[in-house]
Amino acid sequence: MNRFTRFLPDRFTLFLVITVIIASLLPAHGQGIDAFEIITDIAVGLLFFLHGARLSREAIIAGITHWRLHSLIFTTTFILFPVIGLLLKPVLMPLVTPELYLGIMFLCCLPATVQSAIAFTSMARGNVPAAVCSASASSLLGIFITPIAVGLVVVKAGSSPVSFDAVGKIMLQLLLPFVLGQVLRRWIGGWVHKRKSLLKVVDQGSILLVVYTAFSEAVNEGLWHNTPLPALAGLILACAVILAVALFLTTMLGRIMKFNVPDRITLLFCGSKKSLASGIPMAQVLFAGHAVGAIVLPLMLFHQLQLMVCAVLAGRFARRPEADEGGRH
């Protein structure tokens, strides 16, 4: 019986599957979407506040100055992903339409996610300070790098102006709560440190909220209706292949660089993800006049897939023995 139960999904994975099913059958609409976005923003802000209150100043400085890890994450996000998309073109093109392949290359040029990458890193007991620094910097750099990358590998055109609203949102929603947590750490740090279960609830709760909100928006945009069934199946397979290659490469690079387990976890979750929040607004600007729905559909599917797969991986890492925190295996 024990051998059988080892292969059963854990409670969080079940909650994740249930969340996806609910979002598919009962997606939030209109004001409901707005309400869930506000609740999600509050939950993520609380998560960063608690991390700021819990992490020592020494740990944060070590995370910011970990240049080997950050450079590898940025290389994976902005160089390896486009190369993967180009090299896999002979395999991917027969699976999808030309418009969908254009969308695949667009997602390969995008920055990493911020919220879920850090939440998964925290849940898996990775290097959270490094994840905060790397994911935030990736999103900011993506405002400048993504239009250039799209011009080079997608549309062969000059970069278009991109909204800088994402900068303000990152500062307000993520960095400000983190800084406030650091300021108040002197008074509440001990209380937060003793309540790891609270941080776990906020971690997992914020992920479930992100999944439900993102999936609701994708369903409302016609996730299951905007493309023929064979092309949709091919697109799902194409996204799965790209994600699998990215996860494999980030795992192997972490081992080659001899990072410890927390750093390898950070590389895995920050270097293999792509941002839906940044991608949708950028697509509307960079592909004005094109069928934007077909271009962002690969991103919507990849986003849902990466959330589900990374949630399972984070759960597995979270169950590892405490003794492996600083290990290199």
UniProtKB/TrEMBL annotation:
Which Pfam families does the protein's record reference?
A: SBF_like
Q: Give any Gene Ontology cellular component.
A: plasma membrane
Q: Does the keyword Membrane apply?
A: yes
Q: Which UniProt keywords apply?
A: Membrane, Transmembrane, Transmembrane helix
What sections of the protein cross the membrane?
Answer: 12-29, 35-55, 67-88, 100-120, 132-154, 166-185, 235-254, 275-295
Out of the domains of life, which is the source? Bacteria
Q: What is this protein called?
A: Bile acid:sodium symporter
Species in which this protein is naturally found = Bordetella genomosp. 9
What taxonomic ancestry is recorded?
Answer: Bacteria, Pseudomonadati, Pseudomonadota, Betaproteobacteria, Burkholderiales
